[in-house]
Amino acid sequence: MHGMDDAFTLLRQAVDLLPEDAVAENGQTVGDVREDIRRQEWEMVLGLLEELGDVHPVSVDFWELLAEAARQMMLDRSHRWCQWRGWEVQHGTLRATLSLMDPKEGGRRTVFSGDGRLRPMWDIGNRTTDGKPALSIARLWVEFEPQLGPGETADVRLAPLQPEQWRHLKPGDVILMYEAQPVAGIAEIIEVLPPGV
Question: What is the pTM of this model?
Answer without folding.
Answer: 0.88
